[in-house]
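This section describes the prediction task in plain terms. A model, or a person checking by hand, is given the sequence of a single protein chain and must write out its three-dimensional structure as a string of tokens. No templates, partner chains or ligands are provided. The sample shown here is typical of the held-out split.
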Amino acid sequence: TAFVILDEVIKLTNRRVNAIEYVIIPRIENTVSYINSELDEQDREEFYRLKKIQGKKKERAAVALKDSEEKARQAAEDGKLHGDNDEGTRDILAEHVDEDIIF
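The expected answer:
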């Protein structure tokens, strides 16, 4: 009778071992590989997103630089029209004549 009980316990243990070895472990491995693939995909998406943002920032910086150069050029042209002196500094008194104030 002890051998029969021992045999039943061994069979039950073998079934549990087989279930763990052939069912539970493969499921967990599949889950881990799925999670890894999803994380890799997220990393690729984030990398792509960062590159896009960098490109947009470079475009905006180039446009801002172009605008500031255009404004500087325009200001230089305006300064020549409104009485710049030879040193390249603007004479703000020559641009606008104030009326005399009588107290």
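For orientation: The CA atoms of residues 43 and 49 lie 10 Å apart.
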